[in-house]
Amino acid sequence: MNNFIFQNPTKLIFGKGQIARLSKELPKGSKILVTFGGGSVKKNGVYEQVTAALEGFDYQEFWGIEPNPKVETLRKAVEICKRDGVDFLLAVGGGSVLDGTKLIAAAAVVDTDAWELVCNPKLYGGTLPFASVMTLPATGSEMNRGAVISNLATGEKYAFYNTYPQFSILDPQTTFSLPPYQVACGLADTFVHVMEQYLTATDIAPLMDRWAEGVLQTIIEVAPKVRADQTDYDAMATYMLSATMGLNGFIAMGVPQDWATHMIGHEITALTALTHGHSLVVVLPAVMDVMREQKGDKILQYGQRVWGITEGSYDERIDKTIAATEEFFRSLGLQTRLSELNIGKEVAEQIVLRFKERGTLLGENSNIDYLTVEKILNQRL
Amino acid sequence: MNNFIFQNPTKLIFGKGQIARLSKELPKGSKILVTFGGGSVKKNGVYEQVTAALEGFDYQEFWGIEPNPKVETLRKAVEICKRDGVDFLLAVGGGSVLDGTKLIAAAAVVDTDAWELVCNPKLYGGTLPFASVMTLPATGSEMNRGAVISNLATGEKYAFYNTYPQFSILDPQTTFSLPPYQVACGLADTFVHVMEQYLTATDIAPLMDRWAEGVLQTIIEVAPKVRADQTDYDAMATYMLSATMGLNGFIAMGVPQDWATHMIGHEITALTALTHGHSLVVVLPAVMDVMREQKGDKILQYGQRVWGITEGSYDERIDKTIAATEEFFRSLGLQTRLSELNIGKEVAEQIVLRFKERGTLLGENSNIDYLTVEKILNQRL
C-alpha cells in the first residue's frame, strides 16, 4: 500500500426534506451568493425549498452557470462577489454549478484572472467558503475539491482544485425529474470515476479494491431500477450516494490512479460538447483494450468479482470483461462509438495533436503518450 | 435508506515513517500532554520516533493508561491538564490510550467529575483538541468520536462520546511487535464492529452493505497472512486500514445498527477483564442464532456474499453461516465459549441481572431484553 494522507471534512446531509436544514447550516450574518444553472430548479421545487430556507439571510442570486461551466460566465460572478463583499457561496444544482462555484470562490479572493488560476495552481490564494445543494448525482463534486472548467475562447477544459465544500445537502427526491439522458450519463460518470481509481494493478490496497468493486456492483444493480422508475426513492438514493462515494477519496487511499479516460474524454467534450459522462463510455473500453498488457491482472479481478467472468483463456476473459463493460454502458442507452455520435476522425486527430503538442503522458504509469491516445481513439471511430 | 448526516474531519496520516510528520501537525506554541499506556512503545521504537518529532515542543508525558481505561487513572491526567494549562493532547498507543485521552480531553475543560461525564452526556462542555499515534489496529478510535471507559470501583464499562481526533498517524510498522493475542483480538474486534453495523435488515443501503462485506472479506483474506508473519508490511497495512474503516462511520450511512453483541461483551469484560475483542467472538454467534427470525435474510446475504454459502434450506444456510463465522474466530486462535475461558454460569447470571435491573433493550429494534440476553449467554456456556 502506498503512503497516503486522507482528510475530507465535508458535512454530508442526506435524505428526504433535508434542504430545510440550510437555515441551520448557513453562517448567520453572511453575505451569500447563491449560484444556479439554467433554471430546472424552478420546475422541480428545489428553488422554492432553498429560498424558503434562506428567509432572513442576506443573499442574491446568480443564474446561468452552464454544463461544462465556462470561465467567461464565472468571471461575471467573481465580479459580483468582489463588488458586493460576498463572503459565502451556495451552489444549487448539478456538478457543473458547483464546479463553477469552486472557481468563483477561489477567484473572488485574489486579483488573478479566473482562467489563470485554472492554468496555474500556484496562483491559488485561498477561497471564500462554499457549500452546495446537489441535485444531479454524477461528479462527486459535492464531497471533493475538484472542478472542471471550460474556456469557450480557447476550446480548452481543465481540472481545478479548491478546498472542500463546507456542507452538501442531497435529497434524492430532487433527482426524480432529471432528464433520463442526464441520469444515464451520471451513472456512467460514477462508474468510470471508480474505474479510474481502481483499474491499475492488483494487490496494492485490497480493501480499496473491495470498496471500488462495491460501488461498481451497486451501480450495476441499481441502474435498471433507476431507468425503470426515476421516482423510486431508494433506487435514486442508492445512485446518489454511490456517485458521492465514487469520488470523495474514500476508495482512493493508498492506491495509484489512472484518469487517462477522463483526460481523453475531456478533450472530446471540449471539442464537441458531448456530455462528460457520455464521453467516458466511449473512451474506457479502448483504454482497457489498448492497455491490457499493463492492466490485465486487474481487468481479470474486475471481471471475476464484478461480472462473474471466470471461463476462458487470459485474453478471452479480458475480452469478455471489456465487452460486459461496454454492454453495460449501452444498456444505459448510451452509444459507445464516435461514429454513432456523429463525431468524425478529424476530432480524434485534433485530440491526438493536442496531446502531441502538450507532451502529456497519461495513466498510472505515465506511459500513455499521444501515439497510444491515437490507438485508443482509432478503436472508437 | 434512512436520512443521515455524516461528517468525519479527522486527518488520517498513513504509512511508513509517518510519525515524523508529528512535528508538522502539532500546533506550535501548545502545551501538550502526551499520553501513553504501559510502556510497550519504549520497546518498539515508537517512543523514540515520537519524542524526536516533539523536539522543540512544550510537552510532558503521562504514563499508565491501562487496557479498558479506568476513570481512576484518567482523573490523574485531568488534574495535570488543569494544573499546568495543557491545551493539546496526543495519545500514543492503542485504542485504550486514545479512548482514555478522549475522556481526559473533555473532563479537562469542565468542573464535572470524569465519571459523571461518562454517565451523563448532557454534562459534556467541550474538549481540548487531541490527536493520536495509533499502534494497535482494532477499535477505530483513531477516526471516530467514541471511547469506552471503565470504572474500577463499580465494575462498570460504558461508552463515551467526544469529538473526532484532529489527526491520527498510523504506521503499520508499529504493529510488527504486537503480541499475537492482541492482533487476533484486533482482527475479531474489527470484524464484529462491521457486523454490528451490517447485520440488521436487507435492502436498506445497498452500497453500505457492499462496503461492510468488503471489510469482512478483506479481514478474512488478510487474517492468515497477518498471523503467519506480523512483519508482512502490506498485510499489516491492510489490517490496520480495515480496522480504521470498520468504525469511522464510512459504512454506517443511512443504516440501522445493532450493537447488542458489544453491550453484552462489555459486561463480560467489566466482570472478568476478558479482552474486548475476545468477548465479542463469544457473544456474536449466539446473537445471530437467537435473533435468526429477525436477522435471517441478512444472515443469508452475508453467508452468500462473504462465505459463498448457497446450498441448503433457509435454516441450514443460516446454521452454516453462523458456523463459518465461529470457525473464523477460532482460526484466529480465540476460544468462543465461556467455559473454555473459565468463565462460569454465575457471570452470565450477573450480566442478565444487570440488564434486568437497568431495563435496557438492545439491538436495532430495541427488542433484546434481559430474557433474550439470558438465552444468548446460555448458548455460550
Describe this structure in words.
2 copies of one chain form a homodimer. Chain A contains 14 helices and 8 strands. With 381 residues, chain A is an alpha/beta fold. Chain A has 2 domains: 164 residues, Rossmann fold; 201 residues, Dehydroquinate synthase-like - alpha domain (Dehydroquinate synthase-like, alpha domain, Up-down Bundle). In chain A, helix 6 runs parallel beside helix 10 and helix 7 crosses helix 11. The mean pLDDT of chain A is 97. The interface between A and B is large, with 42 and 42 residues. Strand 1 of chain A pairs antiparallel with strand 1 of chain B.
**Count of extended strands of chain A:** 8
Oligomer: homodimer
- CATH fold type of the largest domain in chain A: Dehydroquinate synthase-like, alpha domain
CATH architecture field of the largest domain in chain A = Up-down Bundle
Shape of chain A: globular
The largest beta-sheet of chain A arranges its strands as 1-8-5-4-2-3
What's the CATH class label of the largest domain in chain A? Mainly Alpha
Please render the helix and strand layout as text:
The structure is a homodimer of 381-residue chains.
Chain A: E1 4-14, H1 22-25, E2 31-35, H2 46-53, E3 58-62, H3 71-84, E4 88-93, H4 95-107, H5 114-119, E5 130-134, E6 146-151, E7 156-161, E8 167-170, H6 180-198, H7 206-228, H8 233-245, H9 260-272, H10 276-290, H11 292-307, H12 314-331, H13 345-358, H14 370-379
Parallel strand pairs in A: 1-8, 2-3, 2-4, 4-5, 5-8
Antiparallel strand pairs in A: 6-7
